[in-house]
Amino acid sequence: MPEFSVISSVYRSLLREARRLPHLYVRQFFHVTIQQYFRENVVGRRCNLTLVNAKLSRAKKELRRLRRANNGEKKAMEHVLDVAYGRKGKLKHELMKRFLTNPFDPPPPRIIPGVERSRPPSYSPELSTLLVSAHARTITKPLKPVALVTPPTLPERADPKSEEARLLGTLSRRREVNIRWRYYVAEVKKTYYPLELTKPNGVSETSRFRQTGAEGLSLLKEVEQLASSGHMSSPVPRRQRGKAAEPGDSENPLQHAASDSQFTKRFLRRRYRELLSRIPILTPDTEGKYGGQTSLSPLSLSNSSRMWRVGQASEEDVDWVIKAGTVKPETNRK
């Protein structure tokens, strides 16, 4: 069993680094996560020395990652935001569970008669919408609708009428069940899940779409505010940087940044805009094939255009553009 001083030192260091994270929600999320991790895996498993050492090593690895994130490393900060907003880790699995069940439709028929566990996986309307959408996929292409019925990894022998089945025999039903479930598990892990469900006007409360459980937190709205905060404002002159903030600045979400934070506003805006490109928005649509459609926030980095970086044209600039369009360029003289 590691000494109590070592465990206490790692625990306090993690909480200290969590307090340095840029915004209130991220700090609170990691504060609660660190406490729960040590309570369940270190304090509650004192009898298992091997497991405690492994969990402590993982905590040290996370400590190094938090330090890199607080020092402004891009990849480490992306990991911190992905964990806090359910793009990976335990929160992602909690969001994913909401989409894996399909209580509205009857279970699919058994592939092996009399064997309850031989039922193929059932795709809920929400999960089907996410799997065939490019906005909700991690690094892979969206699936084709036919892949939800017949996985591409399933051999042709699974069809008794195929030529291969006639020559080599029909595929084992137990193997067919395993192939379908492996494909299902692999693809749901490659999918991003929305933080909340966007319910437009005209959709009844008895819609087949279910809530994710995080609608009351307004996390998506907060991320959009952090991604757009001060984005179109001009740089503050050096002489005015030390002055007190104006009353209207209190509504800025960046006010929750840690006092000793070394992050620039531009660095944080880009990290949150990149995060928005990994948060699909699922909107119910009764006319859609799968009952809904996905999109991304207009502030996400993938949807942004270069006009965000271009300042507003002044009247003098407009006059020059008009003049350039009316005056013909001089031809080369001999």
* Mean of pLDDT: 79
Order of strands in the sheet with most strands: 1-2
What structural class do you assign from the helix and strand content? mainly alpha
CA radius of gyration: 27 Å
Strand content: under 5%
Main sheet properties: 2 strands, antiparallel
Low-pLDDT residue spans: 230-236, 241-255, 304-310
Description:
The chain has 334 residues and is mostly helical. It has helices spanning 4-19, 24-41, 49-70, 74-84, 90-100, 125-131, 163-168, 173-189, 219-228, 265-276, 315-326; strands at residues 281-284, 292-295. The chain has a two-stranded antiparallel sheet with strand order 1-2. Helix 3 crosses helix 4 (74-84). 23% of the residues are buried.
